[in-house]
C-alpha cells in the first residue's frame, strides 16, 4: 500500500505517546459489560488461575499490571471478568491503555459487536489518548487482515467527533482495494472521509479509481481522473499505472468512451515508462481517429523524449506548444528544464521565461539546476535576470539558488554585484548558510577587503556555522599577512571549542601571527592547546618563540629583558609538550 501508519504490533499497550492515566470514573463501563457465551471457549476446569490473578491485582491494581494480566489471559470470558472486576474497584481508574488491550482482544477474536461497544464506551468516558488508541487499533487490525474490525473503529472515531488524518482513510482504502472488497465498502470509507471534512490526496483518488475499475465502472473512474485537478490533486506514476493496468484501451474503444483524455492517459503512461516509440504510434492513431492532441498530449511526449535524452526533440515539441499558446504541466515542465540544464543548453532559460509569463511555478530543485547550468556556462548575468520571473511565477528562490549565483559572480570577479545579490537574498528572508559565508569570505579575500572578511567570519561563527577547511586556511593566511588575526580570535576560540576545525598548520599560522601582532598571551594559550593535541610546532614557529630568528625590528626580539618571563613560559610549554611526544 502507498500509505502506511507507523509500524505497530499486538503489543500489551498502545504506544508511549498515549497518556497512561485518566481522570474519570470507570464505574459506568462496569455496568455495561456482558460476558460472551462460552460456545466456542475452552475454559479451565477450575477457577484457580482466575482467582490467582484477582489476588495478584488486589495487591497491585494499576493500569499497567491489569494490561499485563489481560495479555496473559487466554480465555476471553476471564479477560472480560477481570476487566469488570477492576472497573468496580473504587480506587481504580481505567485508561485508554486498558481499553485498548480489551478492544484488541475482542477484535482479534472476531467479537465485532462487543468490540464496538467498548470503543463507544471509551469515547463516551473521554479518556485522555482515546483518539490515538483508536488510530492504533485501526493500524493493528488492518495489518492482521481484520478490516471489518478496523471499519467499526473508524465509525466510532467519526461518531465521537474525532478527525482522523487522511493517512488513516488511505490505509483503510488501500486494504479494501488489496482485498478486492465490494465497492460499497470503499464508498463507505470515502463517505466517512467526506463526513469528517477531510480533503483527499492523490493516493486517496488512486484507490478510489482502482476500486471503480474493479467494479467495472470505467466511465466513472475516468471521470474521477478528469476531476483530479479540481480537487487540487495531481496524477502521479501510480495514477497512470492504475489507469493502464485496469483499463484495456480496446475495451475503452468498445464502450465508446475513448476521448482525448483517454488517449492522453495511455500516451502519458507509455512516455513515462520509456516506451516513446509506442507512445508516438498511439499519438498517430489518436490523430487518425479524429482526436486533436492538446497541451496534455504534448506534455506527455515531452517527458518521453527527456527520459530518452532526446533534448532537442523535447525542445521542438515545447516550441510547437508555445506556438499554440499552451503550457506544459508541472512535472513535464520540470523534466524539460532539468534535462536541458544537465546538457548545458541555455534554452532552459527560454523555457523558464515562457512558462513564468503564464505564472507556472518551477519546483525549487529544477530552478537551482537551471541557475547552476547558466552559471557554469558563463551566463551569470542571464541567471540574475531570471529572478524577477521567478518572483512573478511563484518559483521559490532558495538559499542554495542564491549560493549558486554568488559563486558564479565570485568566480567572475564581480564582487559588487555579489553584494547586491546578497542584499536581495536577505530582503527575501533567505537564511545564510555555511556555503554562503564561505563564498563571501573568499570573494572579500580576492579583492583585498580585509574588514569585510573579518565581519563575515565573525557573523558566521556567531551563528554556529563553520567554514570548510580550504576557506579557513585561506582566511588565516590572508589575515596573518595583514596582522589582523587578533580580530577573529573569539570566533576561532568558538570553532576550536565546538568542532575540531583547526589542524596543525592552522595552529602554526595563528601562533606565529598573534605573536607578531603583539598578542603573545593568546599565542601562548594556542601553543599550549596545540601541544596538548600532540602536534609539534614547525621550525618557523619554534624558532620565533625561542628567539632563534633574528628580527629586523629589534623591538620584537624575544631575547630582550622585557620578554624573559614570557620566554621562560614558552620554554616550559615547549619542553613539556615535546617531552610528552
UniProtKB/TrEMBL annotation:
Q: Which UniProt keywords apply?
A: Repeat
Concerning InterPro entries, the annotation shows:
PPR_rpt (IPR002885), TPR-like_helical_dom_sf (IPR011990), TPR_mt (IPR057027)
- PPR repeat segments run 130-164, 201-235, 259-293, 398-432, 433-467, 503-537
Record-linked Pfam families: PPR (PF01535), PPR_2 (PF13041), PPR_3 (PF13812), TPR_24 (PF23276)
Kindly indicate whether the keyword Repeat belongs to this entry. Answer: yes
Q: Which residues cross the membrane?
A: none
Stretches of the chain forming a coiled coil according to its record:
none
Q: Pentatricopeptide repeat-containing protein-mitochondrial domain spans which residues? A: 424-526
Q: What PROSITE patterns does the record point to?
A: PPR
The entry assigns this protein to a family as follows: Belongs to the PPR family. P subfamily.
**By what name is this protein known?**
Pentatricopeptide repeat-containing protein-mitochondrial domain-containing protein
Amino acid at each position: 500500500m502507498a500509505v502506511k501508519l507507523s509500524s505497530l504490533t499486538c503489543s500489551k499497550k498502545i504506544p508511549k505517546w498515549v497518556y497512561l492515566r485518566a481522570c474519570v470514573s470507570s464505574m459506568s463501563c462496569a455496568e455495561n459489560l456482558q460476558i460472551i457465551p462460552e460456545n466456542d471457549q475452552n475454559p479451565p476446569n477450575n477457577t484457580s488461575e482466575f482467582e490467582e490473578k484477582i489476588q495478584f491485582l488486589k495487591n497491585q491494581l494499576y493500569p499497567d499490571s491489569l494490561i499485563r494480566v489481560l495479555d496473559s489471559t487466554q480465555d476471553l470470558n476471564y479477560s472480560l471478568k477481570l476487566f469488570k472486576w477492576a472497573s468496580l474497584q473504587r480506587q481504580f481508574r481505567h485508561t485508554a491503555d486498558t481499553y485498548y488491550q480489551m478492544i484488541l482482544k475482542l477484535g482479534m477474536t472476531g467479537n465485532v459487536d462487543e468490540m464496538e461497544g467498548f470503543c463507544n464506551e471509551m469515547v463516551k468516558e473521554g479518556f485522555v489518548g482515546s483518539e490515538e488508541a483508536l488510530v492504533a487499533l485501526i493500524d493493528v487490525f488492518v495489518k492482521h487482515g481484520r478490516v471489518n474490525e478496523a471499519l467499526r473503529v473508524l465509525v466510532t472515531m467519526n461518531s465521537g467527533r474525532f478527525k482522523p488524518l487522511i493517512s488513516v482513510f488511505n490505509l483503510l482504502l488501500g486494504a479494501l482495494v488489496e482485498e478486492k472488497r465490494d465497492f460499497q465498502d470503499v464508498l463507505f470509507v470515502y463517505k466517512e472521509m467526506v463526513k469528517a471534512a477531510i480533503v483527499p490526496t492523490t493516493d486517496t483518488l488512486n484507490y478510489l479509481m482502482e476500486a471503480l475499475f474493479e467494479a467495472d465502472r470505467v466511465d466513472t473512474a475516468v471521470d474521477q481522473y478528469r476531476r483530479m485537478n479540481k480537487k487540487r490533486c495531481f496524477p502521479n506514476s501510480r495514477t497512470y499505472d492504475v489507469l493502464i493496468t485496469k483499463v484495456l484501451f480496446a475495451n475503452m474503444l468498445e464502450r465508446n468512451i475513448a476521448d482525448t483524455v483517454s488517449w492522453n492517459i495511455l500516451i502519458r503512461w507509455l512516455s513515462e515508462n520509456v516506451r516513446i516509440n509506442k507512445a508516438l504510434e498511439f499519438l498517430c492513431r489518436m490523430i487518425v481517429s479524429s482526436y486533436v492532441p492538446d497541451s496534455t498530449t504534448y506534455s506527455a511526449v515531452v517527458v518521453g523524449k527527456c527520459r530518452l535524452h532526446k533534448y532537442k526533440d523535447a525542445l521542438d515539441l515545447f516550441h510547437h506548444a508555445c506556438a499554440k499558446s499552451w503550457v506544459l504541466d508541472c512535472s513535464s515542465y520540470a523534466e524539460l528544464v532539468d534535462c536541458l540544464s544537465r546538457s548545458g543548453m541555455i534554452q532552459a532559460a527560454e523555457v523558464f521565461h515562457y512558462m513564468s509569463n503564464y505564472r507556472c511555478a518551477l519546483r525549487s530543485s529544477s530552478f537551482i539546476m537551471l541557475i547552476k547550468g547558466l552559471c557554469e556556462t558563463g551566463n551569470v548575468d542571464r541567471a540574475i535576470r531570471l529572478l524577477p520571473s521567478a518572483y512573478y511565477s511563484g518559483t521559490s528562490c532558495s538559499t542554495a539558488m542564491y549560493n549558486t549565483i554568488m559563486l558564479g559572480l565570485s568566480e567572475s570577479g564581480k564582487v559588487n554585484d555579489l553584494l547586491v545579490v546578497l542584499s536581495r537574498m536577505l530582503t527575501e528572508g533567505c537564511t545564510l548558510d555555511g556555503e554562503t559565508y564561505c563564498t563571501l569570505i573568499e570573494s572579500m579575500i580576492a579583492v583585498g577587503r580585509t574588514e569585510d572578511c573579518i565581519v563575515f567570519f565573525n557573523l558566521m561563527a556567531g551563528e554556529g556555522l563553520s567554514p570548510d577547511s580550504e576557506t579557513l586556511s585561506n582566511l588565516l593566511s590572508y589575515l596573518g599577512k595583514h596582522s589582523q588575526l587578533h580580530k577573529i580570535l573569539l570566533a576561532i576560540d568558538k570553532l576550536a571549542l565546538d568542532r575540531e576545525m583547526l589542524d596543525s598548520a592552522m595552529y602554526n599560522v595563528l601562533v606565529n601571527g598573534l605573536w607578531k601582532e603583539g598578542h603573545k598571551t593568546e599565542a601562548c594559550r594556542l601553543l599550549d592547546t596545540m601541544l596538548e593535541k600532540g602536534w609539534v610546532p614547525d621550525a618557523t614557529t619554534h624558532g620565533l618563540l625561542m628567539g632563534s630568528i633574528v628580527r629586523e625590528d629589534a623591538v620584537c626580539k624575544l631575547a630582550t629583558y622585557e620578554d624573559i618571563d614570557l620566554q621562560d613560559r614558552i620554554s616550559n610549554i615547549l619542553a613539556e609538550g615535546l617531552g610528552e611526544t
